[in-house]
Design a protein that fits this description.
Shape of chain B: globular
Number of domains of chain A: 1
Distance between the termini of chain A: 47 Å
Number of helices of chain B: 12
CATH class of chain A: Alpha Beta
Structural class of chain A: alpha/beta
Distance between the termini of chain B: 17 Å
Number of helices of chain A: 8
Structural class of chain B: mainly alpha
Oligomer: heterodimer
Radius of gyration of chain A: 21 Å
Radius of gyration of chain B: 19 Å
Helix content of chain B: over 70%
Helix content of chain A: 25-40%
Order of helices and strands of chain B: HHHHHHHHHHHH
Largest sheet of chain B: none
Largest interface: A-B, 34 and 26 residues
Strand order of the largest sheet of chain A: 5-6-7-3-8-9
Number of strands of chain B: 0
Strand content of chain B: under 5%
């Protein structure tokens, strides 16, 4: 069985900046092209902003990577890239192995359905085999400790409760790669302890974890490798303590 | 943007392999859309039935058509037209609506297209159940031989629908005015296509109006089996051609634009 891995070579993500409605208009676009730029000038070349620039890295099985950096450094974009949710505008990204992500709280959840119904819903979206559903449901019930709330619609939940449910679902049926964005911050200390244990056992099976965080606590607890990003580029990559130092030094400049 | 056409086209076939996910999503859409309403999906049927009755009675009188002939004609036409119309008008929104799921789960993008087609097919199925009741009541002369022709017609409809949805879903996500533009076009198409009128009302030199209209050929193969008639071969040939073209052009458009779309949702 091949080991999971993520290999990026010169990968870049260029977001289109939509300033005018004309940039999203087919008719304006046609008018602009056909008139060689005379009409509908707003529909001309779209500007792009590089969320991530020329990134080359390799993540191997057993690595738990923490992404750190200031707001706007490109961490979330990088996570989307590594999670396979955003294809690179330039370069290549090769992901070997199956992947799950917690990038946005509540994706795929239907607020009107109960916790139990959402467990089934997410089981389907995550393509968990039916034979595993009973086990997954028991596991999620046990981990989230949401008790009777699971019989209530999700719209009654607090953000912490939704996080517990989303996190439990994403880690209930282990896949090779797990990508988590800063949403973990919404959890209380009790949850964080449980989450640490769950992730540690998750990655013990030679899987990959990629996590974005601002706190050294989470970084130290979850990760064995850190990557410091700034303005869409990787500034430091390696040992957690050293990279955190680099981040700290940078911040004080 | 680096493109790998084969990989992008593979999304369409992977989506087909995972058709069960698309069908489940479609049934969830139906359930969610109509939860806490009295009639559920039958509201959609009711509005069409009311439309057929209203149009049938007024235009039946205008055209001098006996109701037991005109009403089934109108009902069968509307069943087919509603399917085609809803596919065309809704497809620009398909990927935009599914943005949440697309950005969180590694499901094929084409799953959203199959979901949309499945959803419209289920709605048509609901209407056809009512049509059967109407046909029995008005003693429409449907035979087994003619009715069975509905099956290949439905298959052609689904293929054409998938092609159209593949193209318009990606184009609609990138260009937000496609939806409104199609709404205008389909309103005109409804009047220019013999849905509530018949080709025989045209003079021979005006026949090009219907013959060059792809919706006309598709309508014929769909409604004639419901009325106990065989649609002439030329309509079958044209429909198969339309479905094939739609699937090929749609798949290529989808594959070319697929990677870009993630940035425009």
């Amino acid at each position: 069985m091949t080991q999971p891995s993520i290999i990026a070579r010169g990968a870049a993500v260029h977001y289109p900046i939509v300033l005018t409605g004309a940039q999203q208009s087919l008719l304006a676009g046609l008018a602009n092209t056909m008139s060689a730029g005379r009409f509908a000038k707003g529909a001309g070349n779209t500007e792009y902003v590089a969320g991530v620039q020329n990134v080359s890295l390799e993540i191997k099985a057993g690595e738990r990577v923490g992404l750190i950096g200031r707001n706007g450094a490109g961490k979330s974009t990088m996570l989307r890239l590594l999670a396979g949710v955003l294809p690179p505008s330039r370069g290549s990204l090769q992901v070997k192995g199956t992947s799950t992500n917690i990038l946005h709280l509540g994706s795929g959840m239907d607020a009107d359905l109960t916790g139990f119904e959402n467990i089934e819903r997410m089981s389907r979206l995550l393509e968990i085999p039916k034979s595993e559903w009973a086990r997954v449901k028991a596991d999620v019930e046990d981990f989230t400790e949401l008790g009777r709330f699971l019989a209530l619609p999700i719209r009654t939940y607090s953000s912490g409760m939704s996080l517990r449910l989303g996190f439990a679902m994403a880690t209930a049926y282990p896949r090779d790669i797990l990508v988590i964005d800063e949403v973990i911050g919404a959890g209380d200390m009790f949850f964080m302890n449980k989450a640490i244990e769950r992730i540690k056992s998750y990655t013990e099976q030679a899987k990959i974890l990629v996590l974005a965080t601002h706190g050294y606590g989470a970084l130290e607890a979850f990760c064995n490798r850190a990557i410091f990003m700034e303005a869409g580029k990787i500034r430091a990559d390696g040992d957690v303590k050293e990279v955190w130092q680099a981040y700290g030094d940078r911040g004080s400049v | 943007m680096k493109t790998n056409l084969l990989e992008d086209l593979a999304d369409i076939s992977t989506g087909l392999k995972k058709l069960n996910v698309a069908i489940w999503l479609a049934s969830e859409d139906m359930r969610a859309r109509y939860s806490r309403t009295a009639l559920g999906p039958w509201w959609n049927v009711l509005s069409t039935v009311v439309f057929v009755l209203a149009l049938g009675i007024t235009f039946g009188a205008l055209f001098g058509q006996p109701l037991e002939v005109f009403l089934p004609y109108l009902a069968a036409s509307m069943a087919c037209w509603n399917f085609m119309n809803s596919i065309v008008q809704d497809s620009p929104m398909v990927l935009i609506r599914a943005g949440g799921i697309v950005q969180a789960y590694p499901l094929p993008l084409s799953t959203q297209i199959y979901r949309s087609v499945a959803d419209k097919s289920m709605l048509m199925g609901h209407f056809l159940l009512v049509y059967v009741g109407l046909a029995i009541y008005l003693k429409v002369p449907v035979t087994i031989q003619t009715a069975v022709m509905f099956i290949p017609a439905a298959a052609i409809y689904v293929v054409a629908a998938i092609g159209v949805s593949l193209a318009f879903s990606v184009l609609g996500a990138r260009f937000r005015d496609l939806g409104p533009a199609l709404m205008t076009i389909m309103t005109m198409a409804f009047l220019l296509t013999p849905v509530f009128w018949q080709k025989v009302s045209l003079k021979p030199e005006q026949h090009w109006i219907t013959d060059l209209n792809p919706f006309f050929h598709l309508l014929e193969i769909g409604r004639q089996p419901l009325l106990g008639q065989f649609a002439p071969l030329e309509h079958w040939i044209a429909s198969i051609g339309i479905a094939a073209f739609s699937l090929i052009a749609g798949s290529l458009t989808f594959a070319i634009m697929r990677r870009k779309i993630y940035y425009w949702l």
